[in-house]
Amino acid sequence: MPGALEAHIGGNSKRVIAGMSLSATSSLLLAEHIPGFHNAEGSFSGCAATSRPLPRLYAQLTVNRGGGSADQLWGTMGSEYNVYNDALVNATPTNLRPSGTYDSVNSGLGGTNDRGAQGSPTLLVENGVIEAAMSPCIHNLKAKIDS
Questions:
Q1: DSSP code string of the chain
Q2: Could you tell me the pTM of the whole model?
Q3: Which Pfam family name is an example for this entry (predicted)?
Q4: Which of 104, 118, 133, 139 is the most buried (most CB within 10 A)?
């Protein structure tokens, strides 16, 4: 499919995958499961660890808002499928570094741009807590890749 699509749009065979929040984990996983396919990978405010209790709880709290469950996304906790879908477990320097990895997360503290007309106090607090909870996920991923 990529070859046909690239030919149709006049692509140059340079591929980048990036995701934010829950899709950040999917971006990491695709880059890990198909090493070398993407020229770069980006993960913004996501959590690589989907088979560990605390990060999974944070993800569960997020998907609960839409009536979903972490089991639907990544498999039953501890199952083979769940471990396969854990981007922290599957991360290695050889399956992420060659793709030019950029992963980031914020502190969870609201900034000046978060306090506008759309920045309700409830959303600022809820989203700030979620963002702060994701911070160790990205730092753990970086530590694993760097080691």
A1: -HHHHHHHHT--S--EEEEETHHHHHHHHHHHHSTTS-SEEEEES--S--SSHHHHHHHHHHHHTTT--HHHHH-STTSHHHHHT-HHHH--HHHHGGG-EEEE---S---GGGGSTT--HHHHHHHHHHHHHHHHHHHHHHHHHH-
A2: 0.80
A3: Esterase
A4: 133
CB atoms within 10 A of CB 147: 6
Q: Give the per-residue pLDDT at 98.
A: 65
Which domains does the chain possess?
A: 2-146 (3.40.50.1820)
Q: Is the pLDDT of residue 115 over 80?
A: no
Give the bridge partners for 19, in sequence order: 43
Which tokens in the block code for residue 44? 């913004």
More confident residue, 62 or 76: 76
